[in-house]
Amino acid sequence: MKNKSPIPRRDFLKTAVAATVASPALTRGTSAAAPIIGLKPGEMKLACVSWNFRGIGEGPPADEPIDIIGGMRFDGVELIVSRPEDLDAYWKKDTVVSGLKKKLDSYKLAVSQFVLFQSAVENLSSLDSDRRNRSLDVFEEGCKVAVKLDAPIINMVAPWARELKGPQEYLPRYFAQTKGAPDTKYHIDIAKGFDYDAVWETFVQTMKDCTERAARYDLRFSLENHTHTLVHDATAFLKLWDEVKHPSLGMNMDIGWIQLQRAYPPHEIHKVKKYLMNVHLRDIDGVGLVFVRIGGGVMDFKAVVETLKEVGFTGYLAFEQDGVADMHGVIQNGKKILSELIA
Asked: What's the predicted TM-score (pTM) here?
């Protein structure tokens, strides 16, 4: 999707962000999001994350997912950095970026967000300044790639405190432990001497640093909610935003992880309506523990879309589907469902 605006996208975003930063009245209730160029106010488009068709752990190349998603006639795609070393090995190479841009243009496919996976920036919540700064540098390198791909947003899932450890590497996934019950209990190790206040204060400052770095590249920064992270729901995001208060910071709401928290997505959307930059679409089973195929669970997509329309959300709704046998069929069916609701 090429920018048709007579004002260059970067200049437009820079002007919008600068105007908001200059305003002394930036408080909750003031929109933190500059408009997305190419979308009309209130317009929603459908995207698909690349890792639906190439696992996050597999890393690059991104060509095949782009071909699949472009062939399915989506409007946007989210591309992801799996590991810090992938930046130098793949994403920062001019030949790679130019090749991907040609492929994206051939499908009229926009990079709706450029994403940094948790393992790429895992120490952003560390109390160790050296580790934290290295992750900040990775974040900034990700911003540079996002600019080259014309992505308006840099995204990541909120980190969790490094003092918390579960029986599997990706802590948010430790939510449906049933094996061995009742003898085996749901347990997360919390390091002795854990100081939540210190972790939160450090996290706030780090999120300020990330947001300022994103703004330097005329990008917006969307933070996503997952279980056990420092921003697990809309209320936690509002707490963070009240301390950061920067117009380039917004929320990427994953409605599946929201409902996993026993919260109702439309209600949560109302809470963060001024700061909602992107939405991830998932479905969830009735027990509220397993992400099932889109359209096969209890997620009220009609209410979600109606609420997004009501609050005037402008942006992309991206399908993020846990592994299923027929990924193509499930995504195509989900696209049909959401297309009819958005129309």
From this structure: 0.90
55 — alpha (psi -120 to 50), left (phi > 0) or beta?
beta
* Alpha-carbon gap, residue 223 to 84, rounded angstroms: 19
Euclidean distance between CA atoms 334 and 141, whole angstroms: 34
Which residue range is the domain that position 65 belongs to?
Answer: 33-342
Q: What is the CA radius of gyration of the chain?
A: 19
Q: How far is CA 126 from CA 129, 163, 205, 232, 245, in A?
A: 7, 9, 12, 18, 22
For residue 315, give the 3-state DSSP assignment. Answer: strand
- CATH code of the domain covering residue 330: 3.20.20.150
Determine the longest span between alpha carbons in the chain, in angstroms. Answer: 65
Average pLDDT over residues 159-170: 94
**Is residue 13 in some structural domain?**
no
pLDDT one-digit tens code per residue, 54-83: 999 899 999 999 999 999 999 999 999 999
